[in-house]
Amino acid sequence: MNITYGIISTASIVPRFMNAVQKGGQGKIIAIASRSLDKAQKMAEDYNIPRAYGTYDELFHDEEINVVYIATINSKHYQYILEALHHGKNVICEKPFTMTREEAESLFDLAKEKNLFIIEAQKSVFLPVIRRVKEIIQSGQLGDIKLIDFSSSFDISYNTWITSEKEGGGALYTNGSYFIQIIKYLFESQVTAKNGLYLDGTNGGDSQCIITLKLLEHIHVVSKISTEIQIPGLAIIYGKYGRIEIPNYWKARTAKVIYNDGKTEEIHYPCDYELLYEVEHIEKCLEKGLIESPIMNRDMTVETIGLMEDIKKSWQIDKAP
Ligand SMILES: NC(=O)c1ccc[n+]([C@@H]2O[C@H](COP(=O)([O-])OP(=O)(O)OC[C@H]3O[C@@H](n4cnc5c(N)ncnc54)[C@H](OP(=O)(O)O)[C@@H]3O)[C@@H](O)[C@H]2O)c1
């Protein structure tokens, strides 16, 4: 298959995706669309893309495009994935895939019916550091894993939707998929218990959250996500015989294994564009004619959205008068 990408939006993540395709992928980006033709033209010029459109609809109608990458605000993912599928396009959509479990399920059903490839863009499960961490856990070197502790924070000043509940913002919906999908990838298991606390932000979304999960009946997971304060990005996986520390776990280039007896092991995978590994995987799936990734599959997406949706609903009950 000759992969021909069309890009939906000029979001800040888009240049990073386009760099990954242009530096390491086999496919060609042939068009970009924005709600503003000027913005689309500027990005097309900067990245040598032949066509720029001033509406998303024009891109969906471009018959030369066979894969659409969607990177809009979160609340619009469902609508644009649906349009892309109706126009016969394979779809890559940024995380979180949709706002609800039901929406995600219906899109996977539709893609299957139309024999089209569909995937949530989750770079973190394709990182070589995370793959190596999985090998170490599976080897049993750390003994049984009992606790995983994630911490992260992010800047909300660059766009208003990031704090808006209506537009799919808030700490949980903006950053929660990384840690949930990393644990699902590492342990290949469903979450068996969940809980969450939040602080109210100024625009409807949560400005900070603490999520606790249970996996495999013997692993506790805690994740702290804040837009209020700066927290160093870090995941620590604790086993009986030691721990693994992964700085900036969602885009990790390094990790350190520290055994209880004092021995250590450093893991290093430097790279310029961390989305490269995800792009390589997607292109392999497309070349093989798959309609679902064996790694970032329906269950990964649907369970993750379902967990976030349930936790958010429990907060709405708290807020009810
Ligand atoms: N995988 C990752 O590492 C990663 C990192 C960051 C973000 N993301 C995800 O990527 C997506 C984009 O995030 P971002 O932070 O890059 O976004 P951003 O820079 O704030 O841009 C969002 C884009 O959405 C488009 N859009 C469509 N409908 C809109 C509406 N009604 N109001 C406002 N904008 C609208 C706009 O594109 P036009 O103006 O060009 O039409 C806008 O540029 C999100 O889903 C986010 O979760 C993923």
From TrEMBL:
Keywords: Oxidoreductase. The keyword Disulfide bond does not apply. InterPro entries: Gfo/Idh/MocA-like_OxRdtase_N (IPR000683), Gfo/Idh/MocA_domain (IPR050984), GFO_IDH_MocA-like_dom (IPR055170), NAD(P)-bd_dom_sf (IPR036291). The keyword Oxidoreductase applies. It holds the Pfam family GFO_IDH_MocA. GO terms for molecular function: nucleotide binding; oxidoreductase activity. Coiled coil: none annotated. Residues 130-244 form the GFO/IDH/MocA-like oxidoreductase domain. Residues 4-117 form the Gfo/Idh/MocA-like oxidoreductase N-terminal domain. Belongs to the Gfo/Idh/MocA family. This is Putative dehydrogenase. It comes from Alkalibaculum bacchi.
